[in-house]
Design goal:
- Chains A, B: One of its GO terms (molecular function) is DNA binding.
- The structure is a homodimer of 191-residue chains.
- With 191 residues, chain A is mainly α.
- Chain A has a domain of 129 residues: Tetracycline Repressor, domain 2.
- Chain A is built from nine helices and no strands.
- The longest helix of chain A has 27 residues.
- The structure holds a DNA duplex (18 and 18 nucleotides).
Chain lengths: 191, 191
DNA sequence: GTCTATAACGAGATAGAC
DNA sequence: GTCTATCTCGTTATAGAC
C-alpha cells in the first residue's frame, strides 16, 4: 500500500550484480558504471542507494552475512557432518557459477585498499563463520562423526582456509573437481 | 666492463617494489606512479623497462618462479619434512613482513582482469609448486616422516591451498600465529 | 636511461532538473 | 527515483627532447 511495502527492486538488483562482480573480478574490479549498465540506469542513480562505493561494499558484506546466518539456521537441526557437507556443496556450486570465489578470500586480498570500517565488518563476518564451524565440529564429535581427539579449533580454521584457497586454485586450473577432492578429503581426515 | 655487466639497478628495484605492492595491495592495487615515486624517477621512465603493465606482471611472476626454483634447489638434499617446513617458515615470514600474502592467491583473485598470457604464466607457476610439493611428500613417505597410506596427491593440494588461505586469514585478523598453528597442524596430520 | 608533456580514458562523486 | 551535466582525479601509454 505504501512505498515502504514495495520492494526496492533496483537496490536488490544492484546488490545481486555487486555480489557477482565481487566474486568474479573483485571489489576493486568493477565500477558503478558496470552496475548501472547491467541495471539499465545511469551510474549517478546508484548514488541514491549507495552514497559511496564503501557504502556499497558494506551493504554487500552485510548481505553475505545475512545469507550465511540464514543458511546455518536452516540447517541447524541436521547432523553436524551434513551441515558441513551442505556448506561445501554450496561452495562447490561457486566453482560451476562463473568460477566464483569465496568473498572473504577476495576481500582479504584487497584488504589494504579498504577503510577500517570495511575491514572490521569483514573480520566480524569471518569470525561468525569460524564460530559456526567450530561449534559444528564439536557437535560432530558428540555425534561420533569425527574422532574424539580432533582439535576442533584447528579443524575449524583449516576447513575455512582450505575452502578459500581451494576455490582459488580450482579457478586457476579451471578444475571444479579439484575443490571437491580436496575438501571432501579434509572432512574425511577428521574422522 | 661493458654495459651488459652493469646491473640494471632500476629494473631490479622496480621488480622488488612491484613484489611488495603485489603482495600487500594486489597487482591492480598499485600503479606505475607508485613505483616511480619509490624509485625517485618519473613513471614514463618505467616504460623503458616494461612496455605495459602486463609486461611488468609477467616479469614479476617470472621472478617469483625463479626464487621458488632456487629455493627448492637449495634445499633439495634435506629430508622432505625439513624442506616443507622451510617453505612454511618462508611463508610465515610473510605474515610478519607487512602481512604479505601468497602472490598466487592474490593473482588468482584478480585473474579475470588479466590477459590469458598472465593466466597461463600463473597456472604454470602453481603447477610447478604443486609438482614440488607432491614429489617432496612422496619422498617424505619413503623417509618414514609421513604415514604410508597418505594420499600425496591430495596432501599436495591441501598443503598449498591452506598456505594461501591461511595467509589471508592471518592478515584479516592480524594473527600471524594463526597461520603457524594451522599449517604446522596440517603437516603433523600427515604422519 | 630519464625527462617533459600530453593524449585518451575511466573512476568516484555531486548539483540540480524532472 | 532517475536523469543530465560536470568536476576532479588517477590510470596506462606514447612522442619526442635531452
Amino acid at each position: 500500500m505504501t512505498q515502504t511495502l514495495t520492494p526496492p527492486k533496483t537496490y536488490n538488483e544492484a546488490l545481486k550484480r555487486g555480489h557477482y562482480y565481487l566474486q568474479t573480478v573483485g571489489f576493486n574490479g568493477f565500477s558503478f558504471q558496470d552496475l548501472a549498465n547491467d541495471l539499465g540506469i545511469r551510474k549517478a542513480s546508484l548514488h541514491y542507494y549507495f552514497s559511496s562505493k564503501e557504502d556499497l561494499g558494506l551493504a554487500l558484506i552485510k548481505e553475505y552475512e545475512k545469507y550465511f546466518n540464514n543458511f546455518t539456521k536452516k540447517n541447524a537441526k541436521l547432523p553436524a557432518i551434513q551441515q558441513l557437507e551442505a556448506w561445501l556443496k554450496y561452495c562447490y556450486g561457486m566453482t560451476k557459477d562463473h568460477q566464483k570465489l569465496c568473498p572473504i578470500g577476495v576481500l582479504t586480498c584487497e584488504l589494504n585498499t579498504f577503510s577500517s570500517k570495511m575491514h572490521k565488518s569483514l573480520a566480524k563476518f569471518q569470525s561468525n563463520q569460524r564460530r559456526w564451524a567450530h561449534q559444528t565440529l564439536k557437535q560432530g564429535i558428540k555425534e561420533k562423526a569425527f574422532r574424539k581427539n580432533l582439535d576442533t579449533s584447528w579443524a575449524a580454521d583449516i576447513f575455512l582456509e582450505s575452502i578459500q584457497g581451494g576455490l582459488q586454485i580450482a579457478r586457476l586450473h579451471k578444475k571444479p573437481a579439484l575443490f571437491q577432492k580436496t575438501l571432501k578429503g579434509l572432512l574425511k581426515s577428521f574422522s
